[in-house]
């Protein structure tokens, strides 16, 4: 019995020695690892502080703008004319917009507004960068198809349209007729000329250029003009053509304008205009609508980009526009 007991004791001590040796070796390994190893995360002291700045990490992994701010980049100033892009909240009650022309914001812009008339024929001045997946390119134009050149290569380039047409993604009419605040006693300004015909850049086709400052005073001094919302706003009767009278009556009062289709010949129209010039009672009937309505004019071009921002804030879904030529030029 004693011999068996001694053998068992010897075996126990050998196992104990083996366990102690193993523990010693494991402890040495852990010590060396902690001294010389460079783990990303230490379970003893918590996360290791990154040597990369937070801003750099955000730039590397997030190209989207702040979720609470919608960024719209004006890639080409319309006709090269700058304007104050910070009026969305104060003028149009559209908040959360950052409108800029600084191209360094391209990669984080939710929308890029590109004015058609300022695009180079070879498209060389369009953004040369890859378009982020969340970003929408917006085609801006307010010229009629007959006064606008088609550009090969842009048919399938844009996501959205910004135009005066009612079926544009972002509709911005030249103006509108809205209810007046109470009844108004409108009196048109005194006139010293009969007819005003302003073409293209304020009449330069006739060698008589009119500056921006003189534009409204000029049309206000005439009885009749061929423009629409601008003369209506200053008390002048517009003479219109193109779309039918019914089409015009969808937007303005039927008794506020003269349509050339109402006359069988140019002479008949001319005789009627001369009659109006001599008959004040007939002429003033064209302003009776002003007792209950007034003209709301568009703010070029600030309102356009602000409405683009408003659209982008409300529409996060993907959209592409793949038929620009057919939609606008019909071919």
TrEMBL record:
Enzyme Commission number(s): 2.4.1.-
Domain Fucosyltransferase C-terminal: 224-327
GO MF assignments: 4-galactosyl-N-acetylglucosaminide 3-alpha-L-fucosyltransferase activity
Keyword Protein biosynthesis listed: no
Keywords: Disulfide bond, Glycoprotein, Glycosyltransferase, Golgi apparatus, Lipid metabolism, Membrane, Signal-anchor, Transferase, Transmembrane, Transmembrane helix
GO cellular component: Golgi cisterna membrane
TM region positions: 12-36
Leader peptide range in chain numbering: none
Mode of membrane association: Single-pass type II membrane protein
Pathways per UniProt: Glycolipid biosynthesis; Protein modification; protein glycosylation
Pfam families with a match to the protein in the record: Glyco_tran_10_N, Glyco_transf_10
Quaternary structure, from the entry: Homodimer.
Protein name: Fucosyltransferase
Organism: Neolamprologus brichardi
């Amino acid at each position: 019995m004693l011999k068996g007991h001694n053998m068992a004791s010897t075996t126990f001590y050998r196992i104990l020695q083996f366990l102690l040796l193993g523990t010693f070796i494991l402890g040495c390994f852990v010590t060396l690892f902690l001294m010389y190893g460079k783990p990303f995360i230490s379970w003893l002291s918590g996360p290791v502080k990154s040597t990369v700045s937070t801003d750099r990490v955000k730039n590397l992994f997030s190209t989207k703008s702040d979720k609470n701010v919608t960024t719209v980049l004006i890639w080409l100033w319309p006709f090269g004319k700058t304007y104050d892009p910070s009026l969305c909240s104060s003028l149009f009650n559209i908040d959360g917009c950052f409108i800029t022309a600084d191209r360094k914001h391209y990669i984080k812009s939710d929308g890029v507004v590109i004015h058609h008339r300022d695009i180079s024929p070879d498209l060389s001045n369009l953004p040369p960068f890859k378009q982020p997946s969340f970003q929408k390119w917006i085609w801006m134009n307010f010229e009629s198809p007959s006064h606008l050149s088609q550009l090969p290569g842009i048919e399938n380039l844009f996501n959205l349209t910004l135009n005066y047409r009612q079926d544009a993604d972002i509709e911005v009419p030249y103006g509108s007729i809205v209810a007046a605040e109470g009844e108004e006693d409108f009196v048109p300004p005194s006139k010293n000329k009969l007819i005003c015909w302003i073409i293209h850049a304020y009449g330069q086709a006739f060698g008589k250029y009119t500056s921006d400052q003189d534009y409204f005073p000029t049309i206000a001094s005439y009885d009749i003009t061929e423009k629409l919302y601008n003369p209506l706003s200053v008390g002048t009767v517009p003479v219109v053509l193109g779309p039918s009278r019914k089409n015009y009556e969808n937007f303005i009062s039927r008794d506020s304008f003269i349509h050339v289709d109402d006359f069988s010949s140019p002479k008949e129209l001319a005789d009627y205009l001369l009659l109006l010039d001599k008959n004040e009672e007939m002429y003033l009937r064209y302003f009776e609508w002003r007792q209950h309505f007034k003209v709301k004019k568009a703010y070029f071009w600030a309102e356009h980009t602000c409405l683009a921002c408003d659209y982008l804030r409300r529409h996060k879904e993907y959209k592409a526009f793949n038929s620009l030529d057919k939609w606008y030029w019909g071919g």
